[in-house]
UniProtKB/TrEMBL annotation:
It comes from Eutreptiella gymnastica. InterPro entries: Endo/exonu/phosph_ase_sf. This is Endonuclease/exonuclease/phosphatase domain-containing protein. Gene3D superfamilies: Endonuclease/exonuclease/phosphatase (3.60.10.10).
Length: 142
């Protein structure tokens, strides 16, 4: 059924990240929706539980809270390689995560799921261009 295919996708993703030495992974449309009446803290706790299957392979993550299940983003990183510093959600499709690697270098990871329509896409770029200079630390990766 559907649950089996989801588990298979997680195992496939685990294999790909291990095989290719991937240490940071940015994913679009992570299908997580904040429930009506649910606070952000409760929603993030629920998301952490839902993503625990990925954490068992020594990954950490942060994600946006979205009002539809197909509009968010999530950024994963290897716990052994990076230390979480902070993150900034510019909107439900744009997440900036600051990490520090084991050498002390800071990395600004920009994870953006851009709209297909030009108007909303330009608004996203305007937000990014306004906020990124204020929050970036170290190297910027998009």
């Amino acid at each position: 059924g559907n649950k089996g295919s989801k588990i298979l996708r997680w195992h496939k993703l685990r294999t790909i990240t291990k095989t290719h030495g991937i240490e940071v992974l940015a994913v679009q449309e992570h299908h997580f929706k904040q429930k009506e009446g649910e606070g952000q803290v409760e929603a993030m706790q629920r998301l952490q539980g839902a993503m625990s299957r990925f954490q068992w392979i020594d990954w950490e993550m942060t994600a946006t809270l979205a009002d539809t299940p197909r509009s968010g983003v999530v950024t994963f990183w290897k716990k052994e390689k990076f230390k979480y510093i902070t993150h900034h959600q510019l909107d439900q499709r744009v997440l900036i995560t600051i990490l520090q690697d084991d050498d002390g270098t800071k990395w600004t990871i920009l994870n953006a799921h851009f709209h297909n329509d030009a108007g909303p896409r330009k608004q996203q770029w305007d937000k990014i261009l306004a906020e990124l200079p204020k929050v970036k630390q170290g190297n910027v990766v998009m």
